[in-house]
């Protein structure tokens, strides 16, 4: 007897798992939750993000699907950019078979490598992607100093 073939795409099986496993997974989740009930609050997760550089700016693109602009906070301290927020648990419609979308607090931090102009930082959220543009400083740090008599 041949077993049904399964193809994998990333870490997700394309064939459904038997119903008996659903109960087992639910029991395991309950045991883990009970074991860590007294544990400190959940650590924030880190969204997928790309950091790039143009001639005149650093560009950070973070994936934040389903969020609105008032649910995201962008701050800059010295050269450290921080993106924080929270993805709320959506109300389930009926029996949930699989949960792969992340919920809870998130935090993304990046240190920018060069001098920046913090007064001209721009952030836009469109189509689930937050794009933060941090202009490079136009003030020249290096200069030639004339030696006087």
TrEMBL record:
Domain spans labelled SHSP:
40-149
InterPro entries, per this entry? Answer: A-crystallin/Hsp20_dom, HSP20-like_chaperone, Small_HSP
Top-level lineage group: Bacteria
Signal peptide interval: none
Q: Name one Pfam family in it.
A: HSP20
Family, as annotated? Belongs to the small heat shock protein (HSP20) family.
What is this protein identified as?
HSP20 family protein
């Amino acid at each position: 007897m041949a077993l049904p073939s399964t193809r994998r795409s990333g870490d997700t099986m394309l064939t459904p798992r038997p119903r008996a496993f659903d109960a087992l997974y639910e029991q395991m989740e309950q045991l883990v939750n009970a074991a860590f009930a007294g544990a400190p609050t959940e650590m924030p997760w880190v969204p997928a993000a790309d950091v790039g550089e143009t001639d005149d700016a650093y560009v950070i693109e973070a994936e934040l699907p389903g969020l609105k602009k008032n649910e995201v906070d962008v701050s800059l301290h010295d050269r450290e950019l921080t993106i924080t927020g929270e993805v709320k648990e959506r109300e389930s419609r009926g029996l949930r078979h699989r949960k792969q979308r992340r919920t809870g607090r998130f935090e993304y931090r990046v240190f920018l490598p060069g001098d920046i102009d913090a007064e001209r930082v721009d952030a836009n959220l469109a189509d689930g992607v937050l794009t933060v543009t941090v202009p490079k400083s136009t003030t020249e740090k290096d200069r030639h100093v004339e030696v006087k008599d």
